[in-house]
Amino acid sequence: MRKIDLNCDLGESFGPFTMGMDKDILPYITSANIACGFHAADPMVMAATVEAAEKQQVALGAHPGLPDLMGFGRRNMAVTEAEAKNYVKYQIGALQSFSKTGILHHVKPHGALYNMAAGDYNLARGICEGIREVDPRLILYGLANSQLIKAAQDAGLSYAQEVFADRNYEEDGTLVPRSHPDALILDEELAVDRVLQMVEEGRVKAVTGEWIAIKPDTICVHGDNPKAVQFAGKIHNALKERGIDVSAAI
Questions:
Q1: Following CA atoms 91, 93, 97, 101 in sequence, which dihedral angle do they give, to the nearest 10 degrees?
Q2: Residue 182 pLDDT
Q3: I need a surface site. Which of 29, 41, 108, 177 has the fewest CB within 10 A?
Q4: What is the pLDDT of residue 224?
Q5: How far apart are CA 222 and CA 108, in angstroms?
Q6: What average pLDDT does range 43-58 have in this prediction?
Q7: 107: β partners
């Protein structure tokens, strides 16, 4: 039976400011990427999000980002390989402390850190070294066919090739920048059709009209998308109806 993971970025609120619909989306996902305080979240948010995810038996993952609360971690920064490694180690350790078991399932870089490392092997290597030094059993979630995946392979880390239900792709397999009007997919039916195409046919159409070969292990639905819950629910149900096992990546 074909198997696929459905993940979502959670715990991105901060103090009195709420972002996302975490509790509503948890029943539909199988793994959660939880913000660790650099781009979003604070200790109270982290504690509450981990507790909610564990109650739903959703796999816990760290979602480390750049130290940029004001920019939500979506602004590129000049980061060395050593800095990337230490940023990741620090944030994984912070999230681990809130888990009942102290053991996480995966690590998915956030925002600009994710996108920069997808095309920069040295930066991706720093991230993978940080993960391995904390716990070599952790799975890296990275953009399919990117330098993050190559660095994980070279580091001997387990990895899950990630695709996006609610984002468009450039012809080189990278994500269309959020500044572009076609970056987000807001049509629920289109999102479902694209996910099924990626999972069953191993391809996705870029904004240029070209087809990209892709073999997804995990599908991301962004928690800050206004239709995140609807997306997650419809995608989860559509996959189940096709006989696809929706469960956390291994």
A1: 120
A2: 87
A3: 177
A4: 67
A5: 13
A6: 97
A7: 62, 140
Evaluate whether 142 touches 118 at the Cβ level (below 8 Å): yes
**Model confidence band, residue 188 (pLDDT cutoffs 50, 70, 90):** confident
In angstroms, the first-to-last Cα distance of the chain is 14
Would you state the pLDDT for residue 231?
83
For residue 1, is pLDDT > 80? Answer: no
Encoding tokens for residue 210? 């070209």
Q: How far apart are CA 232 and CA 191, in angstroms?
A: 10
Backbone angles phi, psi at 156, to 5 degrees: 75, 20
Q: Which has the closest alpha carbon to 132: 114, 156, 97, 150?
A: 156
Q: Among 55-64, 152-161, 200-209, 223-232, which stretch is predicted with the lowest mean pLDDT?
A: 223-232
How far apart, in Å, are the Cα atoms of 25 and each of 9, 47, 126? 10, 17, 32
Give tens-digit pLDDT for 189-239. 998 999 999 999 999 999 999 999 999 999 998 766 677 888 899 999 999
Q: What is the pTM of this model?
A: 0.95
